[in-house]
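Sharing a chain and its predicted structure for anyone who wants a worked example. Both blocks are below, sequence first, tokens second.
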Amino acid sequence: MSDEQPPAPGADDRPDWAHSFGGVAEAYERGRPSYPSEAVQWMLGDQPQIVLELGAGTGKLTRVIAALGHDVHATDPDAAMLQLLERGVPGVRTAQAGAEEIPLGDASVDVVIAAQAFHWFDLDRALPEIARVLRPGGRICLVWNTRNEKIPWVRRLGALIGTQEQLRDPAEALIFSELFGFVEDREFTYWQTIDRQSIQDLVLSRSNVAVLDEAGRDAKLAEVVAFYDEFGRGMDGMQLPYTTRCFRADVLDRPRAAPHPGHDESGEAGDTDAPTVDEPDDELLIDFR
């Protein structure tokens, strides 16, 4: 998924930014940065985990999780993005699904993680779903790559392609959620090598550019190419600096309904074998491919 913030509430006349990535999936795969392995280790820990990745996109983070030895299940609402993920990370189980209706049983995973995606979720629906699928003591992890715009040329690039992803605290909703405990955060440094072609792919993969018409995209790419030709180093490329912002929090224990006897209309105890309303479902609800 993307690193841009969604449009402001009520902006119904804007294009559908959240679902704009399928048409630029190839550019997304070529142009987007990966994530530092030490950041993923900090979020997931040293022991192998069962990890559910939401908004996995083309698998930028999925590759790192799998390489560290974790059992990762990747989901994304966009079939075109998932197709590239399956090609790039063969053997990983996938499902076309959003964060608001997670196709897994209760308490079925150790970690739920999302990279560049949490801000797109309908959090009123997604946060309870995430808490539902986490095992007791399980963890939610969030990560974003943000350009280091303290560097002048990077700040100029941001002015060309948009800086909306850096305008607000991305994990604010998690911090104030009653479903999760204390939110820890940490930052890591990451450098992406970009050249004249990959910087164009990076720009094309952004939702605010993907929704433009052909003339608008061409105009934006022309600006970016001119910028690169002025500041770039030809075939040697440039090192684009990122700050990788990571957050992690444990799911809070959720009280389960106590067993209770059935009652007839008179209030007398009835069938004591009646099931509780909170009986767990031990089966996964989907067959991951």
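Comments welcome. The first helix runs from residue 25 to 31.
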